[in-house]
Design goal:
The protein is mostly helical and 75 residues long. The chain is built from 2 helices and no strands.
Length: 75
């Protein structure tokens, strides 16, 4: 993980997911001091929330697309 991190709000789904995987790997490996571990945990929480935002947005788009198809069949 680099010292210069992209703000979480600017990450796409794949970027956030890949970084989250790396955060989990580092935390599971251990060897970090408490402050570093807490910083990684906080970043991981932000990344997980960002992934959820992307998935929720995709789910909404799918629901709208499916709903739009149903409305066209009724007319």
């Amino acid at each position: 993980m680099s010292d210069e991190q992209t703000p979480v709000a600017e990450l796409g789904y794949e970027q956030a997911r890949d970084e989250l995987i790396e955060v989990v790997r580092i935390l599971e490996a251990g060897g970090q001091d408490l402050d570093s571990s807490l910083a990684l945990w906080e970043r991981g929480e932000e990344l997980a929330a960002r992934c959820s935002e992307h998935l929720d947005g995709a789910r909404t788009r799918i629901d709208k697309a499916l709903g739009g198809d149903e409305n066209m069949d009724e007319g």
